[in-house]
Amino acid sequence: MFAIRHFSLSMAGAACALALGIAVPAAAQPSAKETRQAHNVLVDYSTCVADAEPEITRAFVLTDGADAARVDGVKRLFDSRCMGFNHGKLKMEDFLFRGALAQRLIEKTLASDALDNVADLEALNATYAGEGPAAQGHTLMYRIGECIARADAAGARTLFATRMGSDKEKAAIRALAPVISGCVPAGQEVQIDRARLRFGLATMYYRLAARLTGQGAE
């Protein structure tokens, strides 16, 4: 059983909002507009960076944790030139940033049939590096994301083509609801926010495609 909920701005989301000049008190719940703005700042920034540094972006998407910090040239993914009019230092949770980068790589480099042979591929069963509830939650989203990508690659691509917070995004997630429900581990009741669903799915979609071409991390 699962429920889709709105994403609550974490420290990463608050930083996005502050970059836009939005005041977010530590204990305050962000409005839907603030959440949408923060997400779209993240997507726009990630699009700019992925276009500027595709190889570094690819290496970052295929790694997690300490390994990601060792990606050659990774500092170039934090490029102030991509901030545009959003002055200030943008800090992003790496799980969300990685997914936003993956989404752009999918859009720009993968054909619509990239996962046609995914049934021939063994499960990746990605584990997010680290300990504690956050790492466990990210791992769960990777597992659910891989399941969704395998079950409905076309539906995933439809989702990636939508603007975050839009009616089209909501419709794409509703269309995926039966698949999402089937991908939730049996006996678990999971609260899934749209941002983590989308970005976890994007990361795993890209990793599956990379593995199919023999270019993914082992």
UniProtKB/TrEMBL annotation:
The entry's keywords: Signal
From the UniProt annotation, give the residues forming the signal peptide: 1-28
Please indicate which superkingdom the organism of origin belongs to.
Bacteria
State the name under which the record lists this protein: Uncharacterized protein
Species of origin reads Alteriqipengyuania abyssalis
